[in-house]
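Record 1 of the preview.
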Amino acid sequence: MIVATQTATKGANVELLLVQALSGLASAASLFLVASGLSIIFGVTRIVNFAHGAFYMLGAYMAYTLTSRFAGPLGFWGGLVVASLIVAALGALMEMVLLRRIYQAPELFQLLATFGVTLMVQDLVVLIWGPDDLMGPRAPGFTGAFELFGRRIPSYDALLIVLGPLVLGLLWLLFHRTRWGVLVRAATQDRDMVACLGVNQKWLFTSVFALGVFLAALGGALQIPRTTVTHAMDLSIIVEVFVVVVIGGLGSVTGAFFAAVLVSELNALGILVLPKISLIAVFLVMAVVLVVRPFGLLGKPERAPRAAAGLSFRPWKPMTQIERIGVALIVAMAALLPLFAGDYTLSVGSEILVFVLFASSLHFMMTVGGLASFGHAAYFGLGAYGAAFAVKFLGAPMGVALLIGPLFGMLGAIVSGWFCVRLTGVYFAMLTLAFAQIIWSVTFQWVEVTGGDNGLLGIWPARWASSPQGFFWLTLGIAVVGVALLRMLVFSPFGFGLRAARDSTLRADAIGINRKSVQWAAFVVSGTFAGLAGALFAFLKGSVFPDSLAIPISVDGLVMVLLGGIETVSGAVVGAIVYKALAIWLMSQTDLSKLILGAIIVLLVVASPKGIVGFIEHIRHRRPRTPTGADVPDSLGINMKAAE
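->
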């Protein structure tokens, strides 16, 4: 009897796994549609389109409207297609109005522009459709279920399982059996050669972008019978899409298909088989794939970027005496702020200073080291938790906790950086994201130590720094010293070696500079300062939550760096002040803060791709042209007339 019961239980478990696997295959169809669109766009235009999730969300909302409120003339299936076409037209419009203006800019600036579009779409969706979740209609003809292994399988899931390979086949025919497809594949290999052959690149790029957006919108539209339509759909899908594209290989549609199936099955089966690591299984797989095969399963080596991160038109120079005096006066004026400002203003000022230090740490790695990290929040959060552990479990005073926090950030950077610096470009960025998500997942699930979603409370500063005035002065002092140390490193022998490795690996190797070693050191330095910022943040808020390691913090850091100017030494300081102050002020003034902030980011990227400080430097050093060419610096900053 017992044996029979155990056999029946095992059979039921196998049946449950098979059913769950089928559900994963159904989810893979929509994920593949969105990922293939992003992969196609990147393969031709080289744009890492952060707004791709926003188009997925717009496709779902538009499909809901056309199938629920205007179902008569179009029908359900016609509504899905028309909704996807409308969103594709919006994507093509964005490409023509915005992206065409910045195609020659470094890829990170395009990422910033598409992030601004994402912010705008989030508020526009709430403004048009409201904040409530919406439930779409069931698919006609696929409303029921059929029985398999004694369990009920939705008919709509079976349709999606068939749809995935069908779309893959259609895309293969499009790219291999049509003239347009041949041009697209040629542009993927060598865009300049395609232009030399007389192909109009503008309209080729627009058509590719429209196709990619159509696939993303269709992926969102197909989800309305399976799940609710929410204004958080974009961020929930974009991370998974990036993971799929990177695992499959950037620019490979077939790779995206296999990776979508792998990721969806890990999500579906991980909850049943390995519930403890279900949140990090996908990122563990991505980390392993990138370490073993740096360009993804079916990807190809990444081509050289258009411009090295931090490569400046004008060589960097230490501050002049007048500039030092000016900075000292600005710091002195900031130090006087607690004498007349209120508690709220000082709390906001302390938060801005914390993010000045955080953004400066990321800026050092990106600008001097040429390493664009998508997961820098991991070391910020590790610093916050390190300080919290010191207070809660060791009873350490604030001074000791402010030393332990950076050590946590440093240790995390040592381990993850050793793997990450073996990659470059987008693949490096995605591996940093994988490690950050692994650390976040561990923090979220290790409830006994970290408190999980409830966090750690009662992380208060010492009595002498407990007032808003005292904590502001403390934060100001640490931020100023931290930024000064990072700037000193830029002009140290280590900084020059790091810049050499950034600009030319071959030349750096020829003179004895090991790229991986110096970039790993820069990674560790950056993680340590980020940990210090996180420790300050823990005492500022009096608590620590897993959100401090989450993706939005990393994105905020990237935006601050790019807004300030990646071709400057200390642009992150201005970028952090402007972005954080503007975000806090807008949230207090309007319900459409993301719409306005996103529009400002887009305008700044278009008007000044060099960033705020970069634009100011460009204006300050601009020289009028003369007929003889005197006082006109070349790309190395040398006065050619004087050299003659």
